[in-house]
Amino acid sequence: MPNIKQQKKRVRIAAEERLENLRYRSTIKTLTKRLATAAEDGDTAAGALHRNAGARKKSQAARLLSGPQA
Fold first, then answer.
1. How far is CA 70 from the centre of its chain?
2. If both were cysteines, with which of 2, 19, 24, 48 could 7 make a disulfide (CB 3.0 to 4.6 Å apart)?
């Protein structure tokens, strides 16, 4: 158990970040499953992304992964 105020804060923040990451992972898994089932059923309208939308999402993910920029 942390004794220092900053350590307590870091433990709290880490727990919040862990929950947020869990939500993101869950959402990604759900969307991936939906895409897989749409592809199996041959429903191209439900499974298709616009080319720019896919590129934008990849770019956003890469930006989040790289961390804050100064």
1. 22
2. 2
